[in-house]
Amino acid sequence: MLEVPTIRWAIIATGLISFWFVEDLVLSRPDAPVNHVIQAIGSSSKEKGEAFAAKHCPNSKPKIYDSYEAACKDPEVDVVYIGTPHGFHKKNCLEAIAHGKNVLCEKAFTLNAREAREVFAAAKEKGVYIAEAMWLRHRPLFKQLMKLLYEDKIIGDVFRMWSDFGREWDVPNLPATSRYRDLALGAGTLLDLGIYSLTWGITTLDPKIPKNSETPKILAAQTFEVGIEVATSIILQYGSSGRQGVITSTTKVDGNPDMVARIEGTAGTIEVVGPTTSDPKYFVVYPKFSTDAAGNTKRGEGKRYDFEVPGRGYTYEADATALDILAGKKESDVMPWSESIRVMEIMDEIRRQGGTVYKADKE
Ligand SMILES: NC(=O)C1=CN([C@@H]2O[C@H](COP(=O)(O)OP(=O)(O)OC[C@H]3O[C@@H](n4cnc5c(N)ncnc54)[C@H](OP(=O)(O)O)[C@@H]3O)[C@@H](O)[C@H]2O)C=CC1
Ligand SMILES: O=C1OC[C@@H](O)[C@H](O)[C@H]1O
């Protein structure tokens, strides 16, 4: 078997995403380019940390800490993964950076662009790696789609796209402490769900992502219940090409899994399919509609591109992060600092137009 390098992770928080991520890290993969070791777990309580390790990485022997800072201090940790709610990302990132640790932090990277800039400035000063865990951009499906759109021009000139992320959650009846209900934690659909539909928009409409991306004109509206945003609709318009995107997210209804995103071009259409907008499984490239002699519009046969992923699909961002760090890089080419800041700036503008205000916006 080929010798591969090892990277040692500290996992901060023991919620839903931390267990999804860790179960993928410890998957047995004969072709894995890196050996991922769960070195430490930091949680609000030692019992939670122990239960998490026993359930989600039973063959690992992590050190369990009852604080995030203690896990960040562990000298045997190479990289800290942050899986706390959005409202804590800035604080947790700064703490890890202060202890000289590399960081992979969940989306949304922070609550606003100002916080993101502060975190990247600290990482730059300390000379550590940091990246936003926007796993969608690391998926082979996404990379293949971008190649077909802009290298192969498989649907001609892209003109328009649409993407929605809907999950039916009864926000008004959730406990006030839930991250979906508490503004201090970043509640609202935009930072949690809309960030994915927005990602489909600002990538499929822009061939120059991520380094030379164009910031589109934005028109946005948001709807609120119990003071929390439960629906966001956005129109994106690109000045250089006139391309348009319609981006939506909501916690009022579940989205249609057959329609994660639809991208339209002068020579055809691509439809992306998956159980959620964050987790695409395949896409179909359709030729242009045709009209028969009777005047009926018909859709031609599509070509389907399937993508099997190991586990839940988090190995791609995990491997990329590890390889970047082992190569001495400070930023991800897939999700560079400038791109995380740009996404936060776009979401700041959407919230400015829509009316969501976080306390952090006033600091
Ligand atoms: N990439 C992806 O596919 C996904 C990403 N996410 C992102 O991951 C982050 C966390 O989401 P998720 O795992 O669903 O959240 P959960 O509520 O399931 O877990 C969050 C964890 O953070 C810790 N925490 C610390 N303070 C608080 C607090 N005041 N309230 C709640 N939790 C707290 C807790 O861990 P402990 O007690 O151990 O310290 C808790 O278990 C978010 O940024 C979200 O956007 C979420 C789902 C999927
Ligand atoms: O990132 C996410 O994807 C799946 C959703 O259910 C979750 O709320 C969100 O944080």
Describe the structure using short key phrases.
single chain, alpha/beta, eight-stranded mixed beta sheet, binds NADPH dihydro-nicotinamide-adenine-dinucleotide phosphate, binds the ligand O=C1OC[C@@H](O)[C@H](O)[C@H]1O, D-xylose 1-dehydrogenase (NADP+) activity, nucleotide binding, NAD(P)-bd_dom_sf, Gfo/Idh/MocA-like_OxRdtase_N
Report on this structure.
The chain is an alpha/beta fold. It is 30% helix and 25% strand. It is built from 9 helices and 16 strands. It has helices spanning 16-25, 46-56, 68-73, 89-98, 113-126, 140-150, 189-204, 315-326, 337-354, and strands at residues 6-12, 35-42, 63-65, 79-82, 102-106, 130-133, 158-166, 217-225, 228-237, 244-250, 261-265, 268-273, 282-287, 290-291, 297-298, 303-306. Strand 1 (6-12), helix 1 (16-25) and strand 2 form a beta-alpha-beta unit. Helix 4 (89-98) runs parallel beside helix 5 (113-126) and helix 5 (113-126) runs antiparallel to helix 9 (337-354). The longest helix has 18 residues, at 337-354. The model has no long low-confidence stretch (mean pLDDT 97). The structure holds NADPH dihydro-nicotinamide-adenine-dinucleotide phosphate and the ligand O=C1OC[C@@H](O)[C@H](O)[C@H]1O. NADPH dihydro-nicotinamide-adenine-dinucleotide phosphate binds next to helix 1.
